[in-house]
Amino acid sequence: MALEITDSSFAEILSKSNEQPVLVDFWAVWCGPCRTLGPIIEEVATDFDGKAIVGKVDVDNNQEISMQYGIRNIPTVLIFRNGEVVDKIVGVAPKETIAEKLTAHL
């Protein structure tokens, strides 16, 4: 299951990106495309359990992180490695695309 990431937990989770890539889905409850992507992110979290950290940030409740990374469109998925953004997907993408991008950073 994807972790719920908040403004207060983000730095700690990101610090683990030295060991494993961290995939973060920026979303909102009212966003239709986000609701489409949600189950895909959950599947990716299950598939990559133990290999990558997969989490979700509700942009309405965690505006600090969203502003820090310039999130203007949702859903936006960022992949971090060693604390840096190494890949980005804006909009709904198929599971295969997300898995390929994440696998490239294992």
Give structural notes.
This protein has 106 residues and is an alpha/beta fold. The chain has helices at 10-15, 32-47, 63-68, 95-103; strands at 3-4, 22-27, 53-58, 76-81, 84-90. The chain has a 5-stranded mixed β-sheet. The longest helix is centred in the middle third of the chain and has 16 residues, at 32-47. The radius of gyration is 12 Å and the shape is globular.
Integer average pLDDT: 96
Low-pLDDT windows of residues: none
Can you give the helix content as a percent range? 25-40%
Number of strands: 5
Number of domains: 1
CATH level 1 class label: Alpha Beta
Shape type: globular
Give me the secondary-structure category. Answer: alpha/beta
Instruction: Work out the strand percent.
Output: 25-35%
Major sheet strand order: 1-3-2-4-5
CATH architecture: 3-Layer(aba) Sandwich
Total count of helical runs of at least 4 residues: 4
What does the largest sheet look like? 5 strands, mixed
What oligomeric assembly is this protein in?
Answer: single chain
Radius of gyration: 12 Å
| H/E topology pattern | EHEHEHEEH
Determine the CATH topology.
Answer: Glutaredoxin
GO molecular function: protein-disulfide reductase activity
Pfam family, one: Thioredoxin
Protein name: Thioredoxin
Keywords: Disulfide bond, Electron transport, Redox-active center, Transport
